[in-house]
C-alpha cells in the first residue's frame, strides 16, 4: 500500500500530458517565495517539469522530486538530464512517509497529487514535518465538483458522477481543492498563516480540446475505465460510451472544459 489511489497511470500519453506543466503556470502563487538558495521538495513530482523549473529558479539551492512511481522518477531524471539541470534529484517515496528529516526544506510543494490520495491531512502533516519553521507548504489541487463541460452531453455528465463515486470508493476526495484550508488547519498550521487562492483550469480551442478529449477517451479504455469496472461504479457499456463521448467532444467546435483549482500556501 503506497497510500495512493492514483488512477491516471504512467503511460506515455499521461506522462506527456503532465510534461506540459510548468512552475510558471501551475505554481505561480509560489514563485515569489522561491529564492536562489531555496531547498525545495516536490511531492508526487511526476515527470518533473515543475520540479526542474524550481531548480532553475533556486539555482544555488537544491531541489528534490519524490514520486511513488519508478516510471515517473525515471522520466523526471531524463527531463533534468535533457535540460542540463544539475541541482535537482529524484527518488521514489510516498507522500505519507517522506524519506527526509524534520525541518529539511524551505518549501514543500505538490501539484495535482492530494486529489489522488486518501487521508490528505496526514500527508499535509508529513509535508509540514519536513518543512523548516518559517518555510512554506504549497499545494495546487482541483475541485471536481466545479467541473463544467460544454456542450452538454449526458454521457459526460454521467462520467463526472461515476468519477466522484470511483474516487470515494478509494477514500479519495474529488472536491479536494475546497478542503485545502481546513485540512491545513488539521495538519497543524495556524489560520493566520494559511492562504488559499483559486484559478480556473480550462481547455478551449481546437488543439487543447482535442488533446484533453483524446487523452480522457484513451484513459477510459485503459486504467480509468478498468478501475470503474473493478469497483462496479459503471458498466462496460457505459465506459465505452464515455470513451466515445470524450472523442466526440474532442472534435466539437466551441467546446469548453473548465474546473476550479485551489492553491494553498501555508507558512510553518
Ligand atoms: C497527476 S500527477 C502530477 C505530477 C506532477 N506533480 C505534475 O503536476 O506534473 C500525480 C503524481 O503523483 C504521484 N503520486 C500519487 N500518489 C502518490 C503518493 N502517495 N506518494 C507520492 N507520489 C504519488 C503519481 O505517481 C503521479 O506521478
TrEMBL record:
Entry-linked InterPro entries: Methyltranfer_dom (IPR025714), SAM-dependent_MTases_sf (IPR029063)
Region (Disordered): 1-20
Gene3D superfamilies: Vaccinia Virus protein VP39
Secretion signal span: none
Pfam families: Methyltransf_31
Top-level division of the source organism's lineage: Eukaryota
Positions of the Methyltransferase domain: 37-143
Protein name in UniProt: Methyltransferase domain-containing protein
Protein's organism: Zasmidium cellare
Amino acid at each position: 500500500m503506497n497510500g495512493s489511489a492514483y488512477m491516471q497511470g504512467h503511460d506515455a500519453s499521461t506522462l506527456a500530458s503532465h510534461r506540459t506543466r510548468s512552475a510558471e503556470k501551475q505554481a505561480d502563487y509560489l514563485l515569489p517565495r522561491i529564492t536562489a538558495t531555496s531547498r525545495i521538495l516536490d511531492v508526487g513530482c511526476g515527470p518533473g517539469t515543475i520540479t526542474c523549473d524550481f531548480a532553475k529558479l533556486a539555482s544555488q539551492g537544491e531541489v528534490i522530486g519524490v514520486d511513488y512511481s519508478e516510471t515517473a522518477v525515471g522520466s523526471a531524471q531524463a527531463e533534468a538530464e535533457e535540460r542540463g539541470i544539475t541541482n535537482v534529484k529524484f527518488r521514489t517515496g510516498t507522500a505519507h512517509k517522506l524519506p527526509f528529516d524534520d525541518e529539511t526544506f524551505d518549501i514543500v510543494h505538490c501539484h495535482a497529487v492530494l486529489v489522488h490520495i486518501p487521508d490528505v491531512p496526514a500527508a499535509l502533516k508529513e509535508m509540514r514535518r519536513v518543512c523548516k519553521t518559517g518555510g512554506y507548504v504549497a499545494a495546487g489541487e482541483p475541485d471536481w465538483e466545479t467541473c463544467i463541460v460544454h456542450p452538454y452531453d449526458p454521457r459526460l455528465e454521467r462520467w463526472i458522477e461515476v468519477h466522484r463515486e470511483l474516487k470515494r470508493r478509494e477514500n479519495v476526495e474529488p472536491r479536494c481543492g475546497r478542503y485545502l484550508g481546513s485540512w491545513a488547519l488539521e495538519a497543524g498550521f495556524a489560520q493566520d498563516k494559511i492562504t488559499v487562492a483559486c484559478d480556473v483550469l480550462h481547455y478551449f480551442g481546437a488543439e487543447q480540446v482535442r488533446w484533453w478529449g483524446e487523452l480522457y477517451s484513451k484513459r477510459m479504455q485503459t486504467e480509468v475505465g478498468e478501475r470503474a469496472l473493478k469497483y462496479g461504479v459503471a458498466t462496460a457499456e457505459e465506459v465505452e460510451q464515455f470513451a466515445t463521448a470524450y472523442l466526440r467532444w474532442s472534435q466539437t467546435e466551441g467546446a469548453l472544459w473548465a474546473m476550479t483549482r485551489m492553491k494553498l500556501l501555508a507558512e510553518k
